[in-house]
User: Fold this.
Amino acid sequence: MADFKCNQPLVIARGGFSGLFPESSSFANQIALSTSLSNVVLFCNLQLTKDSVGICQSDIRLDNSTNVAVVFPKSQKTYTINGENVRGWFALDYTSDQIFNNVTLTQNIYSRPSLFDGTLPLSSVDDAIGVKPPGFWVNVQYDAFYTANKLSVSSYIQKTTRFIGISYISSPEIGFLKKMNGIINKAKTKLIFKFLEADAVEPTTKQTFSSILKDLSSVKSFASGILVPKEYIWPLSKDQYLQTPTSVVADAHKQGLEVYAYGFANDMPGSYNYSYDPTAEYLQFVDNSEFSVDGVLTDFPPTASEAIACLAHNKNAARPSKGKILVISHHGASGVYPGSTDLAYQQSVDDGADIIDCSVQMSKDGVPFCFNSADLLAGSNAMTSFMSRSTMISEIQPTSGIFSFDLTWTEIQTLTPQLNSPLPNSGLARNPANKNKGKFLTLSDFLDFAKAKAVTGILIDIENAAYLASKKGLSITDAVTTALSNATFDKQATQQVLIQSDDTSVLSKFNNVSAYRRVLSLKEIISAVPKQTVEEIKRYADAVNIPRSSIVETNGGFTTAFTNVVDQLHAANISAYVSVLRNEYVAIAFDFFSDPVVELATYIGRIGIDGVVTDYPRTADAYLRSPCSDLNAKVTYSILPAEAGSLLGLAEPEVLPPAEAPAPPLTVADVVDPPLPQVSSPSSSSPNGSTADTGARPVTAPPGSSGQTNAASMSLSLLGILLISMLSVGY
Assistant:
């Protein structure tokens, strides 16, 4: 641990903070320095203009990252580069004045903000050095191309190093590095051999890079280190899972070569093993039992910095007890296994969840069990086996579904769980290897599991109680009360019991057990909670579960403001939980750097939330165990919370997204629900329970299945069912 602190891996910022701003722009360079470790190295991909001025851009074709094609529409050319014809706009066809006075940068990766397109000029090497980075790295990708076109990269670097310091020079061309050996001061500048794809051919030796990798002793003769794609170290299977690490790091270190890995970006997910947590990927390279690389080249230097400075070698650290923040699972670790299954709950315990949750549903024969929603399409293959049970129930949801209370528990047990993404249009699948693993639990089994695992507490979520009572003859509140009592949760104080509902009448049913904490679940997006409403909430609840958008307002993927909702609840001594946090970068505002840890730091450190409801408990637990989670701690690096509106404040007014209407405040009428209806038996002829008989039905579990009396909704198309089955409904 002490050795790691003394020899901390370098964070190398590719084009500055290019994950957020156009590569090597003034914003990218300056903000990389202000948000990263104090020894961060700025990485410049060198291109030369017609008058031999160095500029920083990765792609040799300027049209991929600038507006040059618009400014000079007739200047497109074709060049032969490494044996291939490449057509585009090239820096060597323009003078530096033409470029700096006319051409502006654009973001060339579509998942990143385009807000700064057309407003920032390209940076020269002098501009990049001008921000005074602790270290400066120049990568020369195309020396042979420039030499063939009568421009000398080596001469340019030789002149440049007389006035400015270059810490590292890398290239995939062996001939260039050997030439530089006689030019640079090796005491000040390290030469690094950059490996490209394994089957690519190195232009000097005409060998493939995979062949050169087998003879690292030869590399030692002209370089002091290697820069390799991250897959050279941790290869992936065709299914995008980690395989056994190679010996590249050990072999290179044995030769006295430093090892740097490249290809890191928060919005370019690597292996499913990382569960979309970018810090987990960095830790795989710097915090494992076998090796550590000497540095990582990344588009998101703040994330690499927090992984190295705050999370590495911290697995066994205890969470601080003072002001403890609750990590609350969302259907278990539902980002890793199908939600509400035994495996999802076990994973959430393993991943450090304090509170594990069960969204209680009722079967037709009165068995309470845990499932993501009343609609079984949301997390199972119910469509395959029970398509004929599909029906529309407007009181529950606006789309047709196959509902738990129309199937017996025996029938439900035949269902196969499905791990679906709550972001179906993102293309980001969740852990395909676990897609159909696990089994569903009765509420009784869930409670037994929670007691056996000695978790801090449980959260029992209850919805649709009024509908179940009036239309299906099922008392979900009685079922929950009985199960908790049978498991003696009402007679102990060791484990917390949180009863959550969006219905205040449901919460009122549990006010007779002082050990239970009642949580009001808000579904609406709100902007404020007036004092009168807060006072009304306090009659029913000890805590409120709030959607993210009611705490952090966003527009076009950017934060615009923090509401006062949490402060207004805290003023009345009501706890506030936020839901649902997810690791997928498309679910995270740009101001959080596409980084779930920065989002956590903002909700916890800046806003003061009391608990986070998350699909990925491991990420929240890792942050809370980190010394950097304490904003008052004396640490070498701090994970600073975002400030709402900070990125929009950097943009030109004319490119800002149009303002959105503010959300309404929460009113008393939004909070208070009518008393629950009496439990009555439904007519067997009505699939949606619109006609009901009188009399109560017991809510104990019968041993067998009942008849299948529900008719299908004929208006539901197969396409509609397919679409519904892809969605994951969260509370």
